[in-house]
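Progress report, Aim 2. The chain analyzed during this reporting quarter is listed below.
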Amino acid sequence: MVLILNYINFMTLIPESFVEDLKNRILAALFSKNTDQLKILIGYATDTAKNPEIGETNEKYLRQALTALIRHKHLLDKATGLKQQTKHLKNLLADKVRLAEPGHMEYDAWKKCLDLAPWQHPYIFSEAITFQMTSGCSNFCRRCNEWALPKVRGHFSFAAVNTFIDTFLAHGNRDLALYGGSDPLDWCDFPHDITHVLNRLGKTCQFSLLTKIPRGKGDLAKALIKAGIPMSVSLTDRNRDRILCLEKQMGQSFTKQHATADLLIPAGLDEDFSTVKPSITDSYGTEISLDGCFAVIPAFTSALHPFGHKKIRITAQSTFIPRKKIGRPALLVDYFKPLEVLTEQGPSILPGLLDVQVENILCDNGRDELTPPGMRSIREYFDVFSDRARLKRKSLTPAVVKRIKNKYLHATGFRDLSSDKQTAMKNEILDHVRFTRKDIVARARTCSISFFLAAIHAYIQDQPIKCRIIRHLTLQEYMQLRERFRNLDPAPIAERLENPDTDPWLLFRYYALTLVHNGPTKQVEAFIQACPATFHPEKDRFIPADLGP
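Predicted structure tokens for the chain:
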């Protein structure tokens, strides 16, 4: 059990937020219709909501739990006291909106509240993908994927914003969003507004702005357009008429996004908490806000991750910070492989998968609509082991060898290369040639499945509450797979994969969901122990663990 225990030890280094765990427990109790447990959990949520110092992210978790409770109104009506409890929680969260008095936070005050080790400071800035200057949002859209808190709650001061910008630039970070759960036009520190920030950024960075143009910010939006600031408007039914009026005043059309009555992905108050939707966030890195600093990892939007990403608070105990990936590079990241990170020792690859990555694997049923264009799903990854893909790689060998040689020999001859580079070039060529062999491809497929199942096996030992949610989300698929494999022979998994009639993707899904749905695990455990696997970053493949990294 050494390999499995290593996974458990690795994942327990990443603690769950207490309030996020509370949200998940409420969801699990809702899905199982455990009203007695719900009463206790809503009591905990109510006590948490009474805390005047509760942070932005934790308040969002409470609002997600409240939305889920309201969506299961039929259950609340049947249980004595639940409806009244939920109403009390709703009123407490409404009070936070009513009583909010926006203030300004200085940089030193923000830094003092953080619990960071010295090695982490440069990385949280160099790897930042979001700098959220304001807490709360004046728009409060029903379909906000960030679950932005209603009403502006606070801002970074203009001096703090300048310090942040200086620090981002000093660490080479020139492409990040200036908003997350807020609208960029909401930020102000009189007499300064967003134009003062953008005018300064324009001297050093390329940027664009996405806004809903909050009420009362029309003149500010017109000033930005006149100044030539590249701006797009996120259009919904709530601001459609207002935007049309501004366009008439300006005598020009605005660049628009989301210009439909209904967005594709239900989020925010329209989240149904019963299905898995496409990933919203397609970026890896850090988020800096008044609430602190978080690592951001993309996720499929579901009851587990209504944000469309996972936020992991960075503290002095955090052992890594994810490498920044945005846009096309982020889409090219295989979410089911160990991540590139920065540690106290420098760049590294994580030894295993994060919980959110395991959850992504379990939630990805292979539907094409789940993954955005350009992102490879785990089902598509299984295609690289097909005989058609293997033969295609074999036919491309001359072109691949030429490309590898050009990479190393574009400015020198082979004999002039260092011994390390000579070895590296020969290994790249050899690795490609070997991956056109049937036996090597079959072994890589077996190692991949073993690695994923080992990660899932460890996850279910450590995350019983979230497994209950995943069982709810995947029940229909599991029942279909169980019926399909009802008469499956008891042969070992490795032998079954050697059968040319076996669909490795469906077999993997069956065993993965069997683990989560408390099915028989002996075959899976025997397979993991017999075929232990690890990830080889240079080969970008899973290999037998006894071969080492």
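Residues 384-547 form one domain. Residues 438-462 form the longest helix (25 residues). These observations will guide the mutagenesis work planned for the next reporting period.
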